[in-house]
Amino acid sequence: MDAALATAVSNAPQPNLRGDYSRAGADFVLQQRWSEYAADEHALWRRLYERQMRLVPGYACDEYLAGLARLDADDAIPRLDAASAKLRRATNWELVAVPGLIPDLAFFEHLANRRFPVTHWLRTPAEFDYIVEPDVFHDFFGHVPLLLDPVYANYMEAYGKGGLKAARLGSLKYLARLYWYTVEFGLVTTPRGLRIYGAGILSSGGEVVHSIERPQPRRVRFDLERLLRTEYNIDRYQDTYFVIESFAQLIADTAPDFTPIYERVRTLRSFATDQAAPGDVLLPAAAVRPTAP
Ligand code: PHE
Ligand code: FE
Description:
disordered N terminus; binds fe (iii) ion
């Protein structure tokens, strides 16, 4: 296209345009502009939501399912201001719309102040099964339900504060692994068996069943130092999952000062994603019979 036309196109109002950081403030926050989502985007959201609801009951932890039900997000891309009102009452969290991934420090600053950044745009139909970056479906469906749980909500704030500290200590590589293996890909044991709380699994069409039922992945009982030393996969299902007993345990085990822990792990070799480590306590795959939706 010629230059004049290109300029005209790029200046045209393009609602909720993916990857447009120009409307965002210094904290990367922008307006959601809910009315500008197209009808086919709401329809795609509904299809994503329905597909996940055929998967997550029976696999997700109870706190997640309870939170999801309270959000009433089944028939359209949710309004972030309405969800924020519910969150404020429940746990004093709120949501802010962002144009996509944001720099580490801005992200930690939001979490430390009990604000969760949610990407405002929705994937395309071609990305129904797999998307390489977070969109509003991953961020909202995956992360927001558990922010209604008071204990989990406190963990997320602690993580944000821990992120600001890890940045000062040059240790973000290790702290990022903690986010990955808990907030994104965490499993939890419950009286009724192994369940999922990680957002990356809960918003995925294939990893829900893989993480709980398939024999291949290693399911290792949560051990902070072991986890901080473990690399992760960003482009395929995880080879290793870490399993907590409760959110209270997660908070307790991550409460100590990480400064000496970072110093120690820095001197030790990292474990490959599929590597066994001395002291690993492995949990078996679970056979789950999903409850009917
Ligand atoms: N206790 C950690 C520190 O001192 C902070 C933290 C808490 C990090 C919870 C992650 C999760 O660095
Ligand atoms: Fe995420």
